[in-house]
Write a structure and sequence with these properties.
Layout lengths: L5 E6 L6 E6 L6 E5 L1 H4 L8 H23 L6 E13 L2 E14 L5 H14 L1 H5 L5 E7 L1
Pfam families: OsmC (PF02566)
GO molecular function, one term: peroxidase activity
Organism: Haloactinomyces albus
């Protein structure tokens, strides 16, 4: 079993405080975070929602690649973006949805097979599974 770690250090109150996220497992860097990066202009800082978008788009792309390869049609390219919506919901703030957009070049496949693989990837990618309960939409185009 693989384990991955990240650490966040926060200073100050929610509104004016700030922190940083360090990606410990890969040692690829430290990323500044703040409340305003979640609700206003990021101004050079990331947010938990942006990190979720990164995790989801990469997980989905790998899952789709695996499914297409298993079907005998490995992809040339898969470009996936994930847009994570964050805002007021009920009595507080919440992730209100995730929109996946994928454009892929897959020689030897047809639209129907691609659509089926993309839908299955959305359903079974581990990040999608971890986000169960969140509305996740998919716009998949074979190019």
């Amino acid at each position: 079993m693989a384990e991955r770690n990240a650490t966040t250090t926060w200073s100050g109150d929610l509104g004016s405080g700030s922190g940083s996220v360090t990606l410990d497992s890969s040692n690829t860097g430290r990323f500044p975070v703040s409340w305003s990066s979640r609700t206003e202009d990021p101004d050079g800082r990331t947010s938990p929602e942006e990190l979720i978008a990164a995790a989801h788009s990469s997980c989905f792309s790998m899952q789709l690649s695996g499914l297409l390869t298993e079907a005998g049609t490995p992809p040339e390219t898969i470009d996936t973006s994930a847009e994570v919506s964050f805002g007021k919901s009920g009595g507080g703030f919440a992730i209100t949805g995730i929109a996946l957009t994928v454009r892929a070049t897959v020689p030897g496949t047809d639209r129907e097979a691609f659509d089926q693989a993309a839908q299955k990837a959305k359903e079974i990618c581990p990040v999608s599974a971890a986000l169960a309960g969140t509305t996740i939409t998919l716009d998949a185009t074979l190019v």
